[in-house]
Specification:
6 helices, about 65% helix
């Protein structure tokens, strides 16, 4: 490399370091949805200990993003599943616009991220199972 390229390389690295340090300092002002104590507990349980709160919050933010993406993907699976219902059943369900997230929707979404989820077959096989009659009619 010549001196011009090395100068550009060190400037780029300096900019990246500045951006990273600014991001890490902004984590101190941010309050993630997942509390620090919860993230710290599970990190400690897996063998990771750090006195730096910024690292704990970074893991919390990454976890929050992961959960958000899985929930969004599960919602898309739920919408696709409900739009593929047979037409005669669809007319009946037009009155009920609720989206019901099932374990199948969640397991399909998680499978996209490499997480294989298996559930017991004894879960309610219908969204109205376990609901009282008044709730079913709404």
């Amino acid at each position: 490399m010549n001196e011009g390229q090395m100068g550009q390389s060190s400037e780029g690295r300096h900019d990246e370091d500045t951006t990273l340090s600014h991001f890490l300092s902004s984590l101190m002002d941010y309050s993630p949805t997942i509390p620090d104590e919860l993230a710290e507990h599970y990190l400690a349980k897996s063998g990771f200990h750090s006195p730096d709160t910024r690292l704990i919050r970074l893991v919390s933010v990454a976890t929050q993003k992961f959960i958000s993406e899985v929930a969004t993907d599960a919602l898309q699976h739920c919408k696709a599943r409900q739009s593929s219902i047979v037409k005669d059943k669809r007319d009946k369900q037009q009155k009920d616009k609720r989206l019901i997230l099932t374990m199948d929707d969640l397991s399909r979404a998680l499978r996209e991220y490499g997480v294989n989820l298996k559930h017991q077959e004894y879960f309610a096989d219908s969204p109205s199972t376990g609901m009282d009659q008044a709730s079913r009619d709404e």
